């Protein structure tokens, strides 16, 4: 079984960024993971992004009560506007970065981190232990927009925009990284018809998703004029279950950390075209997803 840690920002609404996103897609990704016999979820670590960390932690606890949870922040009563009761469990008293480093040391080369929010926790893990990039198995990131516009503004995708400095540290740390960006996830849509199928499904996971997905669907209708929702985080998680729906190319990713284009991901794969000559020669390369079999992803998501 693949050992997986999900670094996530599940929640509804965002006090930090406009326009508002919600974490329904984080919830979907977590559920796909819990329903996938191919993987063993070592833990959920939470980060801010869709909501601040305390609420993300609370919501992650809500999504699965038996998991080990590592988080910076503890206790979060009264922070959400959801009508769920407080979770029955508490977060583990350990920072996310410490948990990531601990697990990488415990299972060198075997842990996959699926990063579904801003990359703060991973950057801290890199700073905390410079050997972390070599000890972690793979990092699969929902982050960036490669040759397409962002979703916070024309330059930046939300997770990268959330902490561009952290993103630049992670992309250049030398770990085995696969980045899934908006060029991919804007092709993967859970439609209104899929939603109806989920509504008829006799599953506690489907029922939970249907309950929290409303705002996410409304948002997509208003912002993107589509009848459905983008499956950012589930697509990324599914890459850890079964990478075959994706193809990728390799190159250097750097992140703009200041100014008008703060959060822009610049992908340099000129090496492919010009041999070894690239402006950023010597920087560690990462894999960036370039094509997706969208229906295979949606099918797997629905099935799980
Ligand atoms: C990313 O931002 C959040 O809204 C989603 O959960 C996803 O991780 C998409 O840009
Ligand atoms: Ca997310």
Automatic annotation (TrEMBL):
Pfam families with a match to the protein in the record: IU_nuc_hydro (PF01156)
A GO CC annotation given for this chain: cytosol
Domain of life: Eukaryota
Keyword Hydrolase: yes
Gene3D superfamilies reported for this sequence: Ribonucleoside hydrolase-like
GO molecular function: purine nucleosidase activity
InterPro entries found in the cross-reference section: Inosine/uridine_hydrolase_dom, IUNH, Ribo_hydro-like
Inosine/uridine-preferring nucleoside hydrolase domain location: 4-298
Keyword entries, A-Z: Glycosidase, Hydrolase
GO biological process: purine nucleoside catabolic process
Family statement: Belongs to the IUNH family.
Record-given protein name: Inosine/uridine-preferring nucleoside hydrolase domain-containing protein
């Amino acid at each position: 079984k693949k050992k997986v840690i999900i670094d996530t920002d599940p929640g509804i609404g965002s006090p930090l960024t406009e326009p508002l996103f919600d974490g329904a897609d984080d919830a979907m990704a977590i559920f796909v993971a819990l329903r996938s016999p191919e993987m063993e979820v070592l833990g959920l670590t939470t980060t801010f992004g869709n909501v601040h960390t305390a609420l993300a932690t609370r919501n992650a606890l809500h999504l699965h009560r038996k998991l080990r949870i590592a988080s910076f922040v503890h206790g979060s009563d009264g922070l959400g506007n959801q009508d769920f009761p407080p979770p029955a469990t508490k977060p583990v008293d350990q920072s996310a970065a410490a948990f990531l480093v601990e697990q990488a040391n415990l299972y060198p080369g075997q842990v996959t981190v699926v990063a579904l929010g801003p990359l703060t926790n991973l950057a801290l893990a890199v700073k905390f232990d410079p050997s972390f990039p070599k000890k972690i198995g793979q990092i699969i990131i929902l982050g960036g927009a490669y040759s397409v516009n962002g979703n916070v503004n024309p330059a930046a995708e939300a997770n990268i925009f959330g902490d561009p400095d952290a993103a630049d540290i992670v992309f250049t740390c030398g770990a085995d990284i696969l980045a899934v960006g908006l060029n991919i996830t804007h092709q993967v849509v859970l439609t209104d018809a899929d939603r109806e199928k989920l509504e008829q499904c006799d599953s506690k996971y489907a029922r939970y998703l249907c309950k929290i997905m409303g705002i996410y669907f409304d948002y997509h209708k208003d912002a993107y004029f589509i009848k459905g929702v983008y499956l950012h985080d589930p697509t990324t998680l599914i890459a850890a279950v079964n990478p075959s729906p994706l193809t990728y190319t390799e190159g250097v990713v750097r992140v703009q950390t200041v100014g008008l284009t703060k959060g822009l991901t610049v992908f340099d794969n000129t090496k492919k075209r010009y041999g070894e000559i690239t402006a950023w020669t010597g920087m560690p390369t990462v894999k960036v997803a370039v094509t997706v079999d969208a229906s295979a992803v949606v099918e797997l998501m629905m099935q799980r």
